[in-house]
């Protein structure tokens, strides 16, 4: 299938994603992202607030009463945290989120605005086993170019500081819609929500764009967002792995491809333990995608979950689902995505927002009223 979209939108999304990926916001310290979002959303929302946990909420109200639609995109990224500073100035660290040990050696990082690198034993002195086997994160260290612990502390570096990867967003190959870099998960979702905020107003009711905290370490912020606004429909906009590389099997592992449209997870987690998609939400999103002529990839994803699982089981339960944008090389500093898939997700979310006046009630049985939902 050839999947094309507006080149101007691709250009706008690429610029937004590049700006957001340059911001460092490891789980637990999303403040840099929230400051940027507050400024970017000025004039595009009726209000923007931040709760104690670090969630940001952009609220847009329609001209008359109606349902509450909540769309969430998480602001945090995986990274590291300073654990200790050795007397000779080398820094030990802990992992935050799903960091892959094998991708750490010789990686450029940043802490307190200072660039450093994760050290690696000189190749001339590595044994054959060391050349072919990865090392545990616990055995690695960060070199900040300092000769003592005092010199490190003089930079302002202290225990608990977040450490981020240095990997700017770049175009991959000849196509402007293919980009890769660190924190594409989920700066891409945040970029799409910023586009949505600037172009789409609810015809009625309340539209909440929730920029959630600590998704990478337990889907924490999304649960609070759902319980605060009690939405009639909650959607997570996130990224997910693709199964279209030589080391994956599209049929055995994951039937998701780049450039084939956003994905709709009908199952998340091993055996569906994270979430099984509400059938009414599934049918609704499939219909909106068809009406907008956006290809939608239905998939089962046993490898993880996203904010929709937390929102579905918050409070007394909410109708929830997710639109996920495929990416290759997940949880690496070079996550590769196709911006056309993000544009497709944006088109579907625009369609959902336009239908707020006639939003289904999402009762699990057609003759029952859903419990737990209500106005803001």
Tell me what you see in this structure.
There is one protein chain. With 376 residues, the chain is an alpha+beta fold. The chain is built from nine helices and 18 strands. The protein folds into two domains: 248 residues, Aminopeptidase, CATH 3.40.630.10; 86 residues, Elongation Factor Tu (Ef-tu), domain 3, CATH 2.40.30. The strands form three sheets. A nine-stranded mixed sheet has the order 1-2-12-3-13-17-18-11-10, with helices on both faces.
- Cross-sheet strand order for the largest sheet: 1-2-12-3-13-17-18-11-10
Question: In percent, how much strand structure appears in the residues?
Answer: 15-25%
Sequence stretches where pLDDT stays below 50 over 5 or more residues: none
Q: What does the main sheet amount to?
A: 9 strands, mixed
CATH names the topology of the largest domain as Aminopeptidase
Overall geometry:
globular
Q: Give the tally of structural domains.
A: 2
Q: With helices defined by DSSP (H or I, 4 residues minimum), what is the helix count?
A: 9
Structural class: alpha+beta
Please state the oligomeric state of the protein chains shown.
Answer: single chain
- Element pattern in H and E: HHEEEEEEEHEHEEEHEHEEEHEHEEH
CATH class assignment of the largest domain: Alpha Beta
Mean pLDDT: 94
Helix content bin:
25-40%
Determine the N-to-C terminus distance: 42 Å
Q: Indicate the radius of gyration in whole angstroms.
A: 21 Å
CATH architecture of the largest domain: 3-Layer(aba) Sandwich
């Amino acid at each position: 299938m050839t999947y094309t979209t507006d080149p101007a939108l691709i250009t706008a999304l690429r610029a937004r994603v590049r700006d957001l990926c340059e911001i460092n916001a490891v789980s637990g310290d999303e403040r840099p992202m929230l400051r940027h979002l507050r400024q970017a959303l000025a004039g595009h929302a009726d209000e923007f607030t931040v709760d104690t946990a670090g969630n940001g909420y952009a609220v847009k109200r329609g001209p008359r009463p109606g349902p509450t639609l909540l769309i969430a995109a998480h602001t945090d990224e995986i990274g590291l945290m300073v654990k200790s500073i050795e007397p000779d100035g080398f820094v030990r660290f802990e992992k935050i989120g799903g960091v892959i040990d094998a991708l750490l050696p010789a990686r450029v990082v940043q802490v307190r605005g200072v660039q450093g690198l994760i050290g690696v034993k000189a190749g001339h002195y590595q044994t054959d086993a060391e050349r072919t086997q990865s090392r545990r994160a616990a055995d690695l260290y960060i070199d900040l170019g300092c000769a003592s612990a005092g010199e490190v502390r003089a930079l302002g570096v202290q225990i608990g500081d977040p450490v981020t990867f240095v990997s700017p967003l770049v175009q991959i190959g000849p196509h402007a819609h293919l980009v890769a870099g660190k924190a594409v998960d989920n700066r891409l979702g945040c970029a799409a929500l910023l586009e949505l905020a600037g172009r789409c107003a609810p015809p009625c009711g309340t539209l909440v764009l929730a920029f959630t905290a600590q998704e990478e370490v337990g889907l924490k912020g999304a649960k609070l967002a759902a319980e605060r606004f009690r939405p009639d429909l909650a959607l997570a906009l996130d990224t997910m792995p693709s199964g279209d590389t030589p080391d994956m099997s599209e049929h055995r592992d994951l039937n998701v491809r780049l450039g084939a449209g956003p994905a709709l997870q009908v199952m998340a987690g091993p055996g569906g333990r994270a979430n099984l998609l509400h059938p009414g939400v599934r049918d609704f999103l499939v219909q909106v995608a068809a009406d907008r002529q956006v290809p939608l990839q239905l998939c089962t994803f046993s490898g993880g979950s996203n904010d929709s699982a937390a929102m579905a089981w918050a409070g007394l339960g909410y109708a929830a689902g997710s639109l996920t944008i495929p990416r290759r090389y997940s949880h690496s500093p070079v996550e590769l995505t196709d911006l056309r898939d993000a544009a497709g997700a944006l088109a579907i979310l625009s369609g959902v927002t336009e239908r707020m006046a006639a939003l289904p009630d999402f009762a699990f049985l057609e003759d029952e009223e859903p419990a737990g939902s209500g106005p803001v």
